[in-house]
Amino acid sequence: MSPIFRRTKRNPQERSVTLIGKPGCHLCDDAQSVIEKVCGELGTPWEKKDITRDEELHRAYWEQIPVVLVDGEQHTFWRVDEARLRRELEG
Asked: How large is the greatest C-alpha to C-alpha distance in the chain, in angstroms?
C-alpha cells in the first residue's frame, strides 16, 4: 500500500466525538449511552449538540438524528454500534 493512503493510527485521546440529537429522542439517549461508555473507557472527549438550537445542524441532519461525528466527519446515524465506534477511535 502506498504511504500516501496509509492511515496514521491516532491516540483515542486525540480524537473527538460529537453527538447531534434532540431532547426527548430515545435513539439519541441510546446513542449517548454508547458514546459515554466508549469515550469514557478510551479517554476520548465528546460533546452533545442539540439540533433544535442550531439551524445549520437542523438543515443538515434532521432526518438522520442521532448523528455521530468523529473528528468532524459523519461516523453513523440512528443507531451507534459500540464495537464500530471503538474500532474507529482506536484505529
From this structure: 47
